[in-house]
Design goal:
alpha/beta, 5-stranded parallel β-sheet, two-stranded antiparallel sheet, 10 helices
Length: 256
Amino acid sequence: MYCCIKCRQQIKRTYFPPKKQWGLNRACKCVQEESEKAQLESDRRHRRGQMERVFARSIMNEELKRASFESFLQRTGTEQVHRAALEFIETYETRKTGMLFYGPPGNGKSHLMAAIHHELNRQGYVCLFLDVPQLMKLAKTATRFDSKVTLTDVINGAVSCDLLTLDELGAGDLLADEYKDVLFPILNGRQGKKTNITSNLDLSELEQWLFKDKWGNVIDKDGRLFDRILGSLDIYQNTGTSKRREDAMKRIQQGS
C-alpha cells in the first residue's frame, strides 16, 4: 500500500511486468494537483519565454511600468473604472470577459490597465501590454527579410498570452494591411480569452475607425471586429478629466 503524506489516502501498488517494477494504479488528488500545477507552470514558462523573445516583455512606456493601484489618484469620473479594475483582479479566474475603458486622454485609463497587468504578472499569469501604434511598427519591422522576428511570431505571442492589453486602440490612422494582417488576427484569435483595451474614442468613433482606412476605403464592411469587441468586453466610460492637463496648469500657475 502507498499512503499519501498530505491526504493520508491509501492506494494499492501494482506490479508492472514489462517494466519489472511496482507502481500505483492511480494517483491521489494531491499528486494529481501537483502534477497539473507543474504542467501549468511549465506551459507558462514556455509561453513567457516565447513572448519575451518577440516583445521584450511588453511595449510600455516608463511611466506605465511604475503604475499601480496605490499610485492611482482617484478623481471625479474615475470611480467606476477604478472599481471595475479592482473587481477584474478579484474575479480574474472565473470571469469570461475583458474590459474596454474609453474616454478623454490623460484621465488614468492606461494607468489602471497597467496596474492590472502588473498585479496579474506578479500572480504568475502570462500578461502582455502593447501600445497599439508601437505594435503596428513592430509588425511592419517583422515583415522585413532581415528581421529575426516574423509577423507570425508577433501574432502568436499576442494570441497565446493569458491576458492581453491593447493600449490606445484608435490612435492614428488605420491601414488596411494593419487591420487584415495584425489587428483582426489577434482579436479574432483571442476569442474566449481575456483582452483589455483602452481608447480615447467613444464607441461610434471606434466603430468608424475600424470601418474605413486612412484613405476612406472600407476594411470592416460588416463590422466583424467591432462586433467581436462588443461581445467579449465589458465597456466602461471614464469621464474623469485629464490629470496631465491639471498638472500642467499647476506648473504654469506656479511659474507665474
